[in-house]
Amino acid sequence: MSQTLSAPAKHPRRAAWASWIGSALEYYDFAVYGTAAAVVLNHIFFPGDSPAAATLKSMVAVGVAYVVRPLGAIIMGPLGDRFGRKFVLMLTLFMMGFATFAIGCLPTYDTAGIWAPILLVACRVLQGLSASGEQASAISMSLEHANDKSRAFTTSWTLQGTQFGSLLATAVFIPFAALPEDQLFSWGWRVPFWLSAVVVVAAWLIRRRLEEPPAFTQAMQQVQVKKTTPLRDVFSAHKTAVLTVALCAMVNTVNMVFTTFALSYATNGIGLDRGMMLWVPVASNGLGLLAIPLFARLSDRVGRKPVFIGGALLASFMMVPYLWSIHSGSVLGIFLCGVLMHGGFYSMANGIWPSFYAEMFPTRVRVTGLALGTQIGFAVSGGVAPAAATALSGENLTGWVGPASFVAVVGLLVALVASRVRETAHLPLAEIDR
């Protein structure tokens, strides 16, 4: 068995590259909605409300995709463990592409009335179901192809791809955000969503050449002998790991408050320039592209826990000076704190969690366990954080202390949970499977 499970080292670079480009392209689709929700969608799908109420509804629509992700994990996870990582990667790619392109074609509230936000939420649900299986499958694919001494580094390229997709989604919106409002609200906001058609074709061309890891093939032979199912196995033997991953995954609260609430808070509450604020996540994601693989390489040497815990604490507490800088209108403070918090400290945790979480599960149930744990955590953080931060900011969307304190408390909880996890950085994958 050990001999068979050492085979994944044959294609680590190919798996890392396929995971990177696929995740980058697919998460462009997912992230472009968050940017649009903070800048445009609150005006054209929820008109007639106060700025704070319209923004809150828009943030709730952002959260819907996260709330349904545990359901998607229950569907996509077992598919990845039964029919292969590649099967789920291709399925989710087309689901995400269709939903994103469809959003760009939707009628606005002025045209279709209440049906406009209903259709918007329906598309967002489909995006959430797709995203729930994509990352877990891509991470499992790259982990099982990696050398034992560089698993964090190899799997980190999946998250680096996600980071690039988020950067691209924000960057694409910058020239359209500079349009006059009548053009932006009529057609300009649609173009970034329509670009998903190009995204789907490019990702399909790359991912169709993927091969299943030998470790997965070996695990499937064992499962057929035992006649068990991934869901039954996870719920009977790995419940604690799922709960641990779910709580640790709430570190995503930092990302959600940064990319959605803070942008809306700055532009709709404080009245800062929309174009200037869009450059903050572009700059932070640019730093993240460099920081994620570097921190992952560090964790292969010193361990997963110190890097992940340090990132969770530093990033969550940096939300205090970042939101204060927005409140005070300090452009220099906004860029320094925002880029350091999200591009630097958050990347410490963001680059480590693919290996940190995935190594809590054996190969035979890795996609199922990883998908369930992460999507429950993402559902709580993504579904609650933007709306909670908006509500804590007050009726006029001008308060910063409540949202900043909320993020700091969540970061402290994540660090406490992660401190109790077994260190797996220097264990062979074969030993983790046993």
From TrEMBL:
PROSITE patterns listed in its UniProt record: MFS
UniProt cross-references to Gene3D superfamilies, sorted A to Z: MFS general substrate transporter like domains (1.20.1250.20)
Pfam families in the cross-refs: MFS_1
Keyword Transmembrane assigned: yes
TM annotation in the entry: 27-46, 58-80, 87-109, 184-206, 241-264, 276-295, 307-324, 330-353, 365-388, 400-418
InterPro entries: MFS (IPR011701), MFS_dom (IPR020846), MFS_trans_sf (IPR036259)
Subcellular location: Cell membrane
Domain of life of the native organism: Bacteria
GO CC, alphabetical: plasma membrane
Major facilitator superfamily (MFS) profile domain span: 15-422
A GO MF term: transmembrane transporter activity
UniProt keyword terms in alphabetical order: Cell membrane, Membrane, Transmembrane, Transmembrane helix, Transport
Membrane topology: Multi-pass membrane protein
Predominant cellular place of this UniProt entry's protein: membrane
The protein's name in its UniProt record: MHS family MFS transporter
Organism: Rothia terrae
